[in-house]
Predict the 3D structure of the following.
Amino acid sequence: MRKRFFGFAVILGIAAISYQAGMSFAKQKDDLYKELEIFSESLAVVEEKYVEDKKAQDLIYGAMEGLMASLDSYSQFLTPEDYANLLVETEGKFGGLGIEITMRDGLLTVVSPIEDTPAWKAGVKAGDIIVKIEGELTRGITLNEAVKKMRGKPGTDVTITVLREKPRKIEDIKITRGIIKIEDIKRAVILKDDIAYLRISEFRETTAKDLSKALTRLNKAGMKALIVDVRNNPGGLLSSAVDVSSIFLPSGKVIVSTKSRSEDEKIYSADSKNNKHTQIPIVVLINKGSASGSEILAAALRENDRAILLGEKTFGKGSVQTIIPLSDGSALRVTTSKYYTPAGKSIHEKGIDPDIEVTKEVSDEEKEDVFKELEAKKEEFDYKKDYQIVRALDLIKGIQVLKAAK
């Protein structure tokens, strides 16, 4: 009798929960419709009373921008023009400065300059706060507005004013716009003692394929250990970061998981088709310009005991944005989920601490010397001028010694 009563009570409980959930959802819809009435009233007042005549599309687009900006710093409304530009960017060739920007605490912040682009050459750094564009304050500016102001015809100049944390000073930086060509894999070379180095500048559709080709060449050159450099890599496609991580992990190892409101937790694991470098010793170089996909890769390799992280704390972007096209050619860029490391940790707004902190960076003068050397001789960079790479080489040698001893 007690079992039957208990079962009946559970059924009643579930029914009550379902009823309450239904009531809650209905209440949310009612609340939404009430707020929409207020929006409709406001729109009517603006149409009737505002001093100038405004197009209906301008009003709605402006409202959409405000709606998305109220969510978080990564969600955006994209006009048809903005959406078309975004599609061009994913192809890896576009006009502009070559910086990834975001809003952090209401401030227009550089996530990272992309290597070998006008912004990188002009000395823009990860973490710079852009306080002015062509002399106009950026307070209250949206990401879309900032992008439009900084883009322009290749060969033309734009001056941005940045606030730099260390040393804390304001500096004007004049940048000549150019055609931005993204090469995902850079400088895949053997440095010394069969230790290879390669840099991943972004995570795009072809990154994993390009990485596999580079690793094949390095294998033929005798690679026995690898330094993967994702410093100043602002991220990119989640799928690309998963594919790249899969190359270095045994089949089935968890790379990242995502959690959202509308779907169950998604777990992304290493694919047995791709993982061909699961034994090679790896050191991953990170810094405050390493974000999103870079953080996925770094956390996945460390937490699966495949790599040691060396450098600085990363940027801390642990959310996933989905592009949803709308009927008029515009689109919504919406934060739909947050991602978590294999150990279940969220790095959003927190970043990843390195195993070995090496904060000494190459000075501006040294960077300029290296860049001039590259242009003049068309040769690979002098890694000995990069203190973090030198430390990574020493670390890998130590790993090799221990491995040989075992």
